[in-house]
């Protein structure tokens, strides 16, 4: 842990006291988003201290020309950068001629931030004495509307404490913004129109190259003592900003405020020519409702989300705060309405990593969204990949594959590969298997087979074709081998026969063929369409099948475990616990080659396979592999501890499971990795959710229904979680005494608890 | 082959006719150098077409801050860039008010370049009709003096053909130059003084960060019809240039010319405060001798070089031209006078690759310099590495090694590592063994053991310590393994147990211990000093010895060959000849991952080991390995064909040997790799020399003396080469009829020819 300034609280993230050193961390932690846009918790008023400005629009990116030290054939030409979008939250405040600036003042007291996760708003308040001696109290409340997702609202209030004061509020729009992350200092935005009328204004700009057109708009209202005032603003503009200056005299002790409605309309959702009018319309709609009414809607919308997604933990406030923070951020990032969007690793909280979509979505996020939302959300995430199938085929073609083989990208915005490290881009190909796994997982959980004939099978065929072509026959072994890969454990590069990759390849081919047969038998017209489109021949299926059948798996007879890759046993097998602690984290202390030749595992690799295909192995095999690999695992990826936590729980090692859980749940709040300034680890938050639901709760799908094996850390009194299973909500309450289930739905549900069958009637509670 | 505009000629490189498209290629091919400085064949007069300007000063570089896509721990902070130095060759020419510019004129005829390799000068001549209708004949001759190596001289002559003409010659110095290769567009030079007096001027500038101070000077003389004229120049200066304008009226048919002496004095060789006066003095000395006298000295100096280094080929002009071009360029780049200098991969002909020193020097260049120069030259090259030993130890420490283990850099200027690709920088560690091999090779050839107790043993100990620490015990194999390396074949990265690397490691340790024992027995005071300095203990020697003894070598029982690395037989072993030619060169046609998992070999790897340690294997073993690996070798490195050529010759496969030879000897002249614009492949030129002397001539050291196995390609009538062996020159003349040897020396020399002993008396000829 590197910080502990966040106050423990069941429902809110709270910071008290102002510290310049914490500003960037808090800008990340107090980020808000509504799935369509999001922003770091930058101050509305001017701030001359260190800050990382960020406001992001879902789906809007810039293809930044690749810059690498040494070019390798096959590298993509660009990296899709997450774009800092025009600023609409800015409100400069001048008090008796002095600019309000927390970095330049006499003193600040009572500084407080609160991110209310229950209701979805962010508030900041403080008392400040300016250099000119004026003392004022400031409070601002901000939220991004879930109901009108093109709108955010700010209520910014100032109360002079020791004198009457002349305050100038200057709400502005500014498209002259820059990215921290840029390869060539390119200009990312081109502003081509700017308009102001009364209290409203907008800026029309488009991204360079990608030509996303965005209208950034604002509409302002001025209040004194709660009463709206008509003040004619003084207007300032240049080519990239428009500022409205509202001057108002505030008597000592009275409160004046500005309500600013702002946000974006985007050409993804509107015709270019309609962007300005759409912006004007939606802002007018918001302002007519008014700030308070819109905030009420916000609270209701969040209440609906929590109804399905909440996890409660009794007896551990910090754990409670941690899990809710994770669930809250996931919901701020992606709500599943739009199949063109996905879950970026930093969500709307920073620029780092770029792109929006990694295999994190398929491996970690889909289970969360399946269990806490309507199944259409997970289906939209699958459809996202279906819509990118042509690009995945092109991507594979760039690497020399043919005949409709598809390689999904490591990182992408629009389906094209962005990443540019050969050992990842070209070699971390296990990601491709996750596409098929997600389809399997979706069908297993939702029971909705229709996705497969409609869309999923085409994806599976592209993926299976890739594995078929990527595996090669070793005449030496008379087995198919997969050479030159990087597994989920990125502390190994360019290895041969990574067990996880080979296993996933074999399984992806087999599952594809199984579904080809099923679709052939049961969905004839879909089958005909797909065969025609993919030009799939029986000989190719036979050849694929042979690859799966004769796939090679490195295995140690001595240890009775599958080896992470060929040659793993040649390493110096010193366990992490025997490593001097001064050497860790190895990714900061060791050169890359030393990491590579060490046995240390960044994140679950063989164990990731055991997690995904748990039912294909015995518990004894799981224990053998867990005991073999866990001691070498350094968990230097945020995606790692959750898998180990789930497996430790499955093996009844609750102390270990709890330890792993703690590493994930407050990763950002306590800034374990010393990098929260750059943004939050959004996708790994889904892993934290899995640690509780699949780990402690033991949720699995067995015999086409829910199965549980509830356990509870001794540190907790109890915990609850909800799962949406095929349109019924099952509420699970685990305590030290036992587990109760409450079904909200309309028909009886058969479930397994510790492998025993139970039937639960709708709207009834059973306790076990 | 991609070009064939160079006219075949035994002694000169000749281009006829002007072609804008060839300018940059010719700038490389006609480069001149004298070991202390060098320059591309840029025009003296202004040229507004595409050109790559380059003038380079030996040992002067800039540490350009590393720029990579993805930082890996252990990367060096900078890359030493070869620096384009201030321009001293420039002479603007104005004719009746119009600037002479080959890119903007009515017509050019009789354009001709000649690089006279026999005498060491470069000439260019052409007739040009300007836009203003004036027709003039231009001729310029240029050389960099071998005798005064801080001086170059240009004689630039203009003859009006159709009218009298007023010509303004504007010789200038310009330090406002830039690099093509720069990571951050840094400013590389800072100019701090500028002075002009009469016909002379100088500019003092220093490199940023490294603070090399360089005085760039010039001294001009104007001639009309061969008679020197005193013309008072008009002076123009700004902060980075000084120009002298000489105006002269030339009657039609008469010739006026400017002789410009210029060059650099450098703080590597002078005190900073003396740079300007040193420049003035040496330029005065040159001008007092005069252009023609200095050129006569140049011819004599080159004659002395050729006396020892020349190879003649009868019956094949292009082969003759090719081999002389290689020998000439090697001598232009490095003359062995200064142990601070080394042989850059592009010499003084371009910026690419940066740095100056690769393992090319130890593996390819030292044999050439040993056989064609006094042995002090090779000793200087070894001393260069001895002087960098402390830096090599620091470099190893950065990667986690301890106790004086040394890792020599992949690329360096001053001993620090510059390169920044993890798979090369951290993993291509076989380079370290080349340091020990070069010492062994030097002793074997020269018989001079003194270098080892004096300097070499310390290097060997540092290297052996590295291998000791880098190898790890595989408890699975009960053998020492070396994991995560890149061998000479850079089409494999991060492999385990590269045979060449393991073999070199074992040998380096054994040879080091052998010499520790010898120095202990025979050089007691050196031994005491070394043991004290290195703190080497018997236990460490024992432990090293165990690593060497128990080193693991991958071997195929089926094929009876050592495997290039673990798992090589799992590849799809399709030979290059079965590969569709549209797929080649694979480094342009295939993505990097596909190259990596293919069996294709960029340059000799196992065979490189067989080349270096030929006497440790039988001819049958060589044949087995050659037959196994040659079919997979694509020779996409300029350093590859020479090794195969030598081995094919040793195996009596002269057709194959000749084919490989052709690939190396005219690599740049015929621009096989389509990149000669960027500069020449200097270090691989030594490989071409080896192909003839060690390949066709069969030169080896056996029983402490020279051994030959002369063969001759059927395409040639005969060839000759000379070798300096322990201060006697042996001239070898091979023809289709037999071989004759002529010894220039003072004592009888025993040699082997086809394993039979012969005694050669001084100054006598024997024919076999």
Automatic annotation (TrEMBL), chains A, B:
Gene3D superfamilies in the cross-refs: 1.50.10.10, Glycoside hydrolase, family 65, N-terminal domain, Maltose phosphorylase, domain 3
Occurrences of domain Glycoside hydrolase family 65 N-terminal (ranges): 14-267
Binding-site positions, substrate: 359-360, 602-603
Alphabetic keyword roster: Hydrolase
Glycoside hydrolase family 65 central catalytic domain location: 324-690
One GO-annotated biological process of the protein: carbohydrate metabolic process
GO molecular function ontology, one term from the record: carbohydrate binding
Active-site residues per Swiss-Prot or TrEMBL entry: 490 (proton donor)
Domain Glycoside hydrolase family 65 C-terminal: 699-759
InterPro entries linked to this entry: 6-hairpin_glycosidase_sf, 6hp_glycosidase-like_sf, Gal_mutarotase_sf_dom, GH65_N, Glyco_hydro_65_C, Glyco_hydro_65_M, Glyco_hydro_65_N, Malt_Pase/Glycosyl_Hdrlase
Statement: the UniProt record of this protein carries the keyword Hydrolase: yes
Pfam families linked: Glyco_hydro_65C (PF03633), Glyco_hydro_65m (PF03632), Glyco_hydro_65N (PF03636)
Domain of life per record: Bacteria
Family note: Belongs to the glycosyl hydrolase 65 family.
NCBIfam families per the UniProt record, alphabetical: PRK13807.1
Name of this protein: Glycoside hydrolase family 65 protein
């Amino acid at each position: 842990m590197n910080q502990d300034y966040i106050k423990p609280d069941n429902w809110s993230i709270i910071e008290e006291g102002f510290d310049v050193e914490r500003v960037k961390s808090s800008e990340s932690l107090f980020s808000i988003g509504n799935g369509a846009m999001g922003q770091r918790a930058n101050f509305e008023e001017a701030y001359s201290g260190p800050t990382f400005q960020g406001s992001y629009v879902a789906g809007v990116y810039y293809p930044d020309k690749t810059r690498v030290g040494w070019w390798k054939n096959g590298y993509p030409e660009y990296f899709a950068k997450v774009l800092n979008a025009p600023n609409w939250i800015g409100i400069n405040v001048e008090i008796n001629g002095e600019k309000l600036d927390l970095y330049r003042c006499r003193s600040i007291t009572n500084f407080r931030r609160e991110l209310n996760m229950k209701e979805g708003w962010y508030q900041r308040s403080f008392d400040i004495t300016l250099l000119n001696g004026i003392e004022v109290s400031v409070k601002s409340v901000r939220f991004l509307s879930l109901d009108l997702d093109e709108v955010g609202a700010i209520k910014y209030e100032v109360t002079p404490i020791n004198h009457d004061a002349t305050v100038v509020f200057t709400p502005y729009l500014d498209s002259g913004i820059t990215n921290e992350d840029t390869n060539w200092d390119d200009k990312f935005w081109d502003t081509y129109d700017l308009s102001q009328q009364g209290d409203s204004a907008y800026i029309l700009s488009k991204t360079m190259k990608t030509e996303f057109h965005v209208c950034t708009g604002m509409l302002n209202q001025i209040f004194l003592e709660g009463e709206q005032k008509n003040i004619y603003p003084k207007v300032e503009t240049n080519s990239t900003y428009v500022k409205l200056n509202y001057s108002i005299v505030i008597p000592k002790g009275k409160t004046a405020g500005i309500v600013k409605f702002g946000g974006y309309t985007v050409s993804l959702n509107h015709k270019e020519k309609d962007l300005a009018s759409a912006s004007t319309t939606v802002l007018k709609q918001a302002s007519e409702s008014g700030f308070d009414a819109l905030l009420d809607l916000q609270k209701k919308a969040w209440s609906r989300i929590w109804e399905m997604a909440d996890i409660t933990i009794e007896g551990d406030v910090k754990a409670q705060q941690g899990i809710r923070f994770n669930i809250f951020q996931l919901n701020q990032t992606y709500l599943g309405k739009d199949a063109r969007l996905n879950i970026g690793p930093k969500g709307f909280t920073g620029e780092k990593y770029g792109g929006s979509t990694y295999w994190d979505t398929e491996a970690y996020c889909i289970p969360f969204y399946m269990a806490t939302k309507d199944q259409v959300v997970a289906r939209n995430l699958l459809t996202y990949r279906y819509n990118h199938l042509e690009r995945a085929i092109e991507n594979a073609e760039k690497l020399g594959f043919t005949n409709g083989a598809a390689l999904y990208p490591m990182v992408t915005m629009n389906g094209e590969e962005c990443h540019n490290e050969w050992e990842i881009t070209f070699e971390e190909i296990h990601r491709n298997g996750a596409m098929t796994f997600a389809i399997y997982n979706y069908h297993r959980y939702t029971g909705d087979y229709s996705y497969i004939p409609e869309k999923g099978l085409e994806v599976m065929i592209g993926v299976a074709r890739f594995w078929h072509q990527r595996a090669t026959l070793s005449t030496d072994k008379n087995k198919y081998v997969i050479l030159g890969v990087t597994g989920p454990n990125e502390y190994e590069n360019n290895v041969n026969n990574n067990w996880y990759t080979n296993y996933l390849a074999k399984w992806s081919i087999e599952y594809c063929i199984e579904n080809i047969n099923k679709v052939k038998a049961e969905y004839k017209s879909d089958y005909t369409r797909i065969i025609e489109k993919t030009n799939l021949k029986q000989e190719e299926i036979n050849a694929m099948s042979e690859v799966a059948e004769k796939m090679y798996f490195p295995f140690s007879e001595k240890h009775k475990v599958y080896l992470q890759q060929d040659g793993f046993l040649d390493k110096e097998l010193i366990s992490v616990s025997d490593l001097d602690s001064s050497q860790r984290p190895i990714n900061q202390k060791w050169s890359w080659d030393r990491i590579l030749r060490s046995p240390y595992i960044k994140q679950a690799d063989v164990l990731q396979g055991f997690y995904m295909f748990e039912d294909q192995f015995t518990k004894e095999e799981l224990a053998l592999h867990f005991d073999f690999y866990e001691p070498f695992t350094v968990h230097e990826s945020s995606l790692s501890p959750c898998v180990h936590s789930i497996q430790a729980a499955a093996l009844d090692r609750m102390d270990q499971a709890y330890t792993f859980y703690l590493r994930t749940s407050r990763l950002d709040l306590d800034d374990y990795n010393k990098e929260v300034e750059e943004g939050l680890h959004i996708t790994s938050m889904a892993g934290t959710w899995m640690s509780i639901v699949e780990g402690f709760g033991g949720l699995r799908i067995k015999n086409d229904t829910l199965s549980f094996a509830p356990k509870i850390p001794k540190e907790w009194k109890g915990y609850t979680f909800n799962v949406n299973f095929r349109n019924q909500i099952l509420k699970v309450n685990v305590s030290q005494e036992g587990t109760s289930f409450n079904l909200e739905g309309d028909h009886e549900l058969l479930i397994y608890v510790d492998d025993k069958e139970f039937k639960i009637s709708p709207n009834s509670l059973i306790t076990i």
